[in-house]
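--- STAGE predict ---
source: upstream dedup step, 1 unique chain passed
mode: sequence only
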Amino acid sequence: MSKYQVTVGNVGTVYDGDDQQKADEMFDEYVEQSRSGYGRAAHEPVCLMNVDGEEFREFVDHLTRYIKTGQGCPVCGDEADTEGESITVEGVFAIQPMHCLDCDHEWTSRYRLERAR
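--- STAGE serialize ---
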């Protein structure tokens, strides 16, 4: 049975073996691919685990998490220190300027009502 496994979001298992150095190298390589935003690993989570299923290292792209959950800063990932200004409505969109107090990044969140029942 293999000791180390590296898995990548929609790609699957990219390393399954006993060499920790090789597992670390594969993890680092796929983290860079995820961060780059290009290819199959773009913005995908990357996880390095041991045989017992304990996570050694994990990378989650902050922008992807923000898009999926609407939580935290899309740049640094801080969840506690983000604040939004007043929401304005323009056509079918509600627009809210946002600011991260941790990394000082600013962005705009746009919301659109898709359907009401």
